[in-house]
Amino acid sequence: MQRRTVIAPDSFKGTASAAEVAAAIRRGWLRARPDDDCVEVPMADGGEGTTAAIAGSVPGARVVIVPVEGPVGAPVDAELVELPDGTWVVELAETSGIALLAGVDHDSCFRASTIGLGQAIRYAAEHGARRVLVGLGSSASTDGGAGMLTALGARFLDAHGAEIPLGNSGLHALESVDLSGLVRIPPDGLVALTDVVNPLFGELGAAAVFGPQKGAAPEDVPVLEAGLARLTQVLERAPEASGDVLALAAEPGSGAAGGTGFGLLAIGAEISAGAVAVAEAVGLRDLLRGADLIITGEGSFDAQSAAGKVPSLVRKLAQEEGARFSVIAGRVGLEAEERQALSAAGVSILSLSELAGSGQRAMDETLEWLEVAGERMAAEVA
Fold first, then answer.
1. I need a surface site. Which of 19, 111, 344, 350 has the fewest CB within 10 A?
2. C-alpha angle 73/74/80, rounded to 5°?
3. Using CA atoms, how far apart are residues 282 and 56, in angstroms rounded to an integer?
4. Segments making up each domain of the chain, as ranges
């Protein structure tokens, strides 16, 4: 009997893109069940890999390469995606991401900015975008989105009326901001995509949680936060800012990508759960209709996977469609009781680390073991 299987994984970060993961699982599945209808739908949660996932899943999507200024000034060729409905997709990891740096240290932590992200958004806006989806994640900076806003036409000035340096270091000299020169926002708005709910400030804020990943020493964290605080204080006085600036800093997701979520909110953007927005962009719900089994996956499947990640969304949609749900992950970090509960609920879970015999082998040979997992999962439903 022919089955319809939809394969909708996130990327296995550092080893395979979502498209590569989906293709490998499909190859393995078809070895065991060659007559089945297998549909690949690469997914993402708004972080690294978002543009690639959407470009690979939406018919008629057009990839556009745009040169921008990288996180510390070196030129970068960023990949943007234009969709047939006039939506453009821009990804911070492509323009201002930490992977674009040779390494991180105190200097890069304070110098890095989001100016390249702003240049990419501006390009989309000036080339007819009706809406821009902005994937936030893997950022190198803690500038509160000030670099992005600069590229969009804002002017951040010191006490002498000169423009401040880019990065968090420049925020400490900020005295005034002029938003009157901002480019026109696309008619259907800007949507920030993120899988985090961190606010801008505090123990769960942008500096405290994400600063150390970007080269900040413990003593640097309060300095980074002071720069962000100065940004909010000055923006609060700007008549063109959107809404109550201090309230925006407390919004879930405002701390995403070094506070870039806040910067976007300050000019009227909305924040959306990344996986939900990507699912909508690729038409995932329609693709799941009539499916017998839906397979998702990610590099590490653990308790955090239920918090706005791709697997939690795919499972919810599978339940709504009455389809079986399975997971293939690089590693499974669930407690035995959690895994047993999922098994009792009919959820099949395969770990590449367990299949390969070690985590290192699974990482070194990810695509090969994904094929093995796909074939094993197909055999289980035969």
1. 344
2. 100
3. 9
4. 4-43+283-381, 59-275
Q: Which residue type occupies 121?
A: I
3-state secondary structure the chain: CCCEEEECCCCECCCECHHHHHHHHHHHHHHHCCCCEEEECCCCCCCCCHHHHHHHHCCCCEEEEEEEECCCCCEEEEEEEECCCCEEEEEHHHHHEHHHCCCCCHHHHHHCCCHHHHHHHHHHHHCCCCEEEEECCCECCCCCCHHHHHHCCCEEECCCCCECCCCHHHHCCCCEEECCCCCCCCCCCEEEEECCCCCCCCCCCHHHHHHHHHCCCHHHHHHHHHHHHHHHHHHCCCCCCCCCHHHHHCCCCCCHHHHHHHHHHCCCCEEEEHHHHHHHHHCHHHHHCCCCEEEEEEEEECHHHHCCCHHHHHHHHHHHHCCEEEEEEEEECCCHHHHHHHHHCCCEEEEHHHHHCCHHHHHHCHHHHHHHHHHHHHHHHC
Q: What is the mean pLDDT of residues 359-377?
A: 95
296 closest CA partner among 339, 341, 349, 367:
349
Contacts of residue 117, defined as CB under 8 A and 6 or more positions apart, other chains included, come to 68, 90, 92, 95, 96, 134, 147, 148, 151, 260
Q: What is the mean pLDDT of residues 195-214?
A: 95
Tokens 């949680």 identify what position?
209
Both structure tokens of 276:
């939900």
62-69 and 190-194: which strand pairing?
unpaired
Q: Would the pLDDT of 308 be above 70?
A: no
Residue with tokens 């556009």: 64
pLDDT, one tens digit per residue, over 343-366 is: 788 888 999 999 999 999 999 999
Closest C-alpha to 39, from 11, 84, 13, 2 = 2
In one letter, which amino acid is 348? S
Fold of the 4-43+283-381 domain: Rossmann fold (3.40.50)
Distance CA 378, CA 380 (A): 5
Mean pLDDT of 171-191: 96
CA–CA dist 376, 355 (Å, integer): 10
